[in-house]
Amino acid sequence: MQVLLGQKIEQTQKFLEDGTRIPVTRLWVEGNIVIGVKTPDKHNYSAIQLGFGQKKRATKALLGNFKGASLKTAPKFIKEVRVDEGTLSLGQKVKAEEVFKPGDIIDATGISKGKGYAGVVKRHHFKGGPRTHGQSDRERAPGSIGQTTTPGRVYKGKRMAGRMGHETVTIKNLEIVAVTEDEILVKGLVPGGKNSFIVLKKVGENKKFTPLFKEKGEIESAERPAHAEGDALQNEEQTLEDSDSLSEIQTPEVKEKPEEDTVSNFSSPLDDQSPSTPEIAGKASTFSSSENGSTFSSSEGSQAPDSIKDSKQNKGKEPARNASISVAGGDKKDGQ
After folding, report:
1. What's the CA gap between 219 and 68, in Å, rounded?
2. What gap in Å lies between CA 278 and CA 205, rounded to an integer?
3. Over 191-203, what HEC string results?
4. Cβ neighbours around 307 below 10 Å, total
5. CA distances from 18 to 21, 63, 185, 212 (A)
């Protein structure tokens, strides 16, 4: 098979590996499907019908022609292509990589842009009349269109003013510079505007093909899918090795130690200073301090410690006068 259907996306530019800048046209070619098969036994010739795109509003009669291809919507473009018998089957999708490759020479056929009504200078590139000798109104005129009595008519095909464009045009010997799963880059320009229907036909191959220049990021992205599976397996093996090494480092005591011991290691040092007497243990108690002193409150049946009682009794009292003072000469009392 040498033919594929496509849709024009845009025109842009690219660079070759030798630094040459070239104009390219991007073509969308995803969605080519076989909607009909012609066989020599039934139709006396071998061909297939390719469908491309989706038609918004299709009649039931049109949809009935594609029942065998199991299509939910009717294709927007249909083209019959001559092929060898048994090459493709009904409902099969045709990929661009199966038909074309970089370096192929193709003919692009499409409908050119409409220009409306145009004169002979724009439409047929007439030179026009002279500007001098009083012929100011003949500058873009077509001139004579025939003879007199003989033949007495205008010959068919005479180039004259009229409707220009919107015709089927074929640009020959274009070169394919890149092929992907859903797009094709063609060197040069193809007929028609954006989203117009294009038929690509392979006619040869360029033996001196120069590929497109690829930047480092494009090369890495192209190589990444090939190594993605290997990288995933390598990362998984590395994770397993790390987990095994950590399990070997841990001692059996750490592995078998219960969680309660681990929590007790982080207990506060104040826990050692908590009262251990049977009267206070296991009962809720609250200590609070203020500028005037300290207070103690507890549940029923509990008593305040002796240290707190002594502090209450001695509160507000002056130090004893008979306190002994230790000096180098011996012990003396105040007032002596």
Report:
1. 42
2. 102
3. CCCCCCEEEEEEE
4. 7
5. 9, 50, 18, 9
State how far the Cα of 336 lies from the Cα of 332, in Å rounded to an integer: 7
- Phi and psi angles of residue 122, each rounded to the nearest 5 degrees, phi first: -80, -40
Cα 191 from chain centroid? 30
Model's pTM, two decimal places? Answer: 0.61
DSSP 148: B
pLDDT digits (tens, 9 = 90+) for 57-94: 888 888 888 877 878 888 999 999 998 877 788 888 99
For residue 35, give the 3-state DSSP assignment. strand
pLDDT category at 177 given cuts 50, 70, 90 is very high
Report helix, strand or coil for 324: strand
Token representation of residue 164 = 């220009």
Average pLDDT, the chain: 77
Instruction: Measure Cα distances from 84 to 46, 90, 111, 201, 226 in Å.
Output: 6, 14, 28, 16, 35
Helices (H), the chain: 40-43, 60-64, 96-99, 120-124, 216-249, 252-256, 259-264, 306-313
